[in-house]
Amino acid sequence: ATMPPLLAAIATAGRHGVLVKSAVVMEQLGTTTRVAFDKTGTLTRGVPELTEIRPLSGSPFTEDQILRLAAAAEHGSEHPLAAAVVRAARRRHLSLPAADEFSARPGQGVSALVDGQFVQVGSPPALLGTDDLATQVAAVVEELQQRGNTAVVVLCERNPVAVLGLIDQLRPEAVVAVSAVTGLTGAAPVLLTGDNAATAGQLAGHVAITDVRAGLLPEDKVAAIRGLERDGERMTVVGDGVNDAPALAAAHVGIAMGGAGSDLALQTADAVVVRDDLNTIPTVIALARRARRIVL
Ligand code: ADP
Ligand code: MG
């Protein structure tokens, strides 16, 4: 007996490195009209490098002391930015104190008690008050962002003590993969990110994406997808993080990047990319379309 087309397509997708969880998903994937990509860990490698530590004037800490506090607080986080901070501390041979009362807020940052001090590390809009945003902190944040950095602030006892600059490289295949998706759907994909608009806009320019939605919390990503679907789009969302899980669940089809992707994203998604290659996205959409044509 010959295999039904959608099951055959699932088998082929598997050989190309994408695990599609059901025939229904394969069928829906074939009707995709628009794709949305998460930025960090999806269009980028997800392995950012700490490039700069900028102590703020009035801060009592040296660069190493700041890095030590920030890395101790980040130790419990699975976020790529957290891993970069911890790696940078290890590279400087800093010994990390244990942290208590660790807490993470997806899309915002982390907090913990380190050496009895309340340390927070995360996105400037989430952690800074309007006073800080108007002052020296904001100037340093903006300067870093203009040069393509993701800026993260470090607070000790609720006072901003430093800004960290981190840079994540575009995946080498991103330009080609985005262009292939644009060719298939007839519209450039959407970029969804919790990162700031300046950094996101620069990266989007490199891959020819113009619809950039930045500064999004996980629930804002869901709202963006729902809005596009209300306008008649059938969205396929590609993401990797805990912060993407709600959007992956809300979309017509959610695809998680396997590799370094979070367990929650993998469980929530309708399909998982197990070969670390964005070109699998246009490949699997094309496969799904062909299978549908045979079924119909
Ligand atoms: P993206 O949508 O691009 O994958 P996220 O939603 O994961 O990004 O994160 C959005 C922003 O929240 C980051 O740019 C950073 O400023 C902040 N953030 C989130 N988690 C952390 C963390 N563990 N450490 C530092 N900053 C964080
Ligand atoms: Mg991500």
Automatic annotation (TrEMBL):
Name of the featured protein: Heavy metal translocating P-type ATPase
Domain of life: Bacteria
Region of the whole protein represented: 289 to 584 of 669
Subcellular location: Cell membrane
Stretch forming the signal peptide: none
Family membership: Belongs to the cation transport ATPase (P-type) (TC 3.A.3) family. Type IB subfamily.
